[in-house]
Specification:
With 365 residues, the chain is an alpha+beta fold. It has eleven helices and eleven strands. Helix content is 44%, strand content 13%. α7 crosses α10 and α8 crosses α11. The chain starts with a helix and ends with a helix. The model has no long low-confidence stretch (mean pLDDT 97). It binds adenosine-5'-diphosphate (ADP), 2-acetamido-2-deoxy-1-O-phosphono-alpha-D-glucopyranose and magnesium ion. Magnesium ion binds next to loops.
């Protein structure tokens, strides 16, 4: 076993697992935390072990308090609905001494969850599966509708504040730490030209037309586990960014990832566009759960929710590329640049399709 492997196994052994951990494999899906699937001796029960990225989550204790509170809340709802609390909500596994974290010798924060069997986490979906993911995210939203928002820690300040995301991007361009700005001048100019759109949601929150509630804030398709046989939503995961927000954030983030015709890092941009059928099917599922609670401005704002969450992600990827790839995990040197080109291609496509997207949203008023 290598030193790196021993490091993971040492952390696993600190948790109150069914039996001794014997092996693990790394999961490469998320862009933020280090995630491992852990197998134990003489049992089929597996676990998720994660080393939380504390460069990004500066208050890991507050973050875990959020997750604990949210999971307990959702668990009660699942039980009241006659569901399976070991499957339909993340089950937190404590350390042998009863703590939510094991802190390693380097100060790294490790947590563990029960692994859920018979599910998939997808990066692309057909219409029916995407519809089911919309029902799952919509349902999660309703489960949290009565969660005491004031008790939540803000794990990443201004997470979906598109104006501050724009300003962070502009700063990255101005600083140009790695000398990369000149080679992507056109892309930067395209992104900077969208300044006036950035305050759309914030303006409506300020005027009271759009409400603040408890939102997930990272609703990409691979953050909901779906039943591998039926495709039904089983469990919403990645609860690190559950914070007060607008439902347009959750809608928009799910659309920018799942209603795109291609993966988030597809480099053949001819293959990347907003699929209006997927856009509509997601609205249908999401609003099946949420329409009664939504204002008119929220329904009409769905297309701009999709637009701004895509824009934010595009400038975050491009900003990270300019800053030297310090935030998102990359799997090759220009990965963030490819992701940024991809998201900004979606923006160009939505610029053209906005009238159609608005017409679709109006149908659901
Ligand atoms: P990150 O913040 O790095 O995205 P996540 O909590 O989303 O971390 O976990 C990363 C990935 O792990 C998820 O996108 C998903 O693909 C996978 N994953 C997590 N739990 C399970 C599970 N029970 N079954 C299958 N895959 C899982
Ligand atoms: C990150 O954690 P993950 O991989 O599910 C990021 C999201 C981005 C997404 C882009 C905490 O999500 O905000 O939209 O990458 N999460 C955080 O794929 O920054
Ligand atoms: Mg994730």
């Amino acid at each position: 076993m290598s030193e790196a492997e021993k490091f993971v196994m040492t952390a696993a052994a600190e948790f109150d697992l069914a039996s001794e951990p014997v092996s693990f494999c790394r999961c490469n899906a998320g862009h933020i935390n280090d995630t491992f699937f852990v197998q134990c001796k003489d049992t089929d029960t597996q676990y998720i072990l994660q080393r939380v990225n504390t460069n990004i989550f500066k208050d890991p204790e507050g973050l875990m308090d959020n997750i604990y509170g949210v999971c307990e809340h959702v668990k009660k709802k699942v039980i009241a609905d006659g569901g399976d609390p070991d499957r339909e909500v993340r089950k937190i596994i404590l350390t042998k001494s009863g703590d939510k974290y094991f802190i390693d010798e380097e100060g790294g924060y490790w947590r563990a969850y029960l692994f859920i069997d018979g599910v998939v986490s997808l990066n692309e979906a057909d219409k029916n599966t995407f519809y089911k993911s919309a029902l799952a995210f919509g349902h999660f939203f309703t489960q949290l509708a009565d969660y005491p928002a004031e008790t939540l820690h803000e794990t990443i300040p201004n997470f979906h504040n598109s104006v501050s995301r724009y300003n962070d991007f502009k700063k990255a361009v101005e600083e140009d730490k790695m000398g990369r700005a000149a080679e992507v001048k056109d892309l930067i100019e395209f992104a900077l030209s969208k300044k006036d759109k950035c305050s759309y949601i914030l303006d409506r929150i300020a005027s009271g037309e759009i409400k603040l509630c408890v939102t997930h804030n990272d609703t990409k398709l691979n953050n909901v586990l779906l039943d591998e046989k039926t495709g039904d939503g089983v469990c919403v995961i990645d609860l690190d960014t559950v914070m007060p927000g607008s439902l347009l954030y959750d809608f928009g983030d799910a659309i920018r990832f799942g209603a795109s015709s291609a993966r988030e890092d597809e480099t053949d941009l001819d293959k990347v566009y907003m699929d209006l059928e997927l856009f509509e099917i997601f609205i249908k599922g999401f609003l099946e759960e949420l329409r009664p609670t939504m204002t008119e401005a929220e329904v009409l704002g769905l297309p701009m929710g999709a637009y701004l969450m895509t824009f934010e992600t595009g400038v975050r990827f491009l900003g990270d590329y300019l800053n030297g790839d310090t935030y998102f995990k990359i799997h090759y040197p220009t990965h963030n640049l490819d992701r940024a080109r991809n998201q900004l291609k979606l923006i160009a496509d939505m610029d053209a399709k906005m009238p159609e997207m608005e017409a679709i949203a109006r149908k659901y008023l």
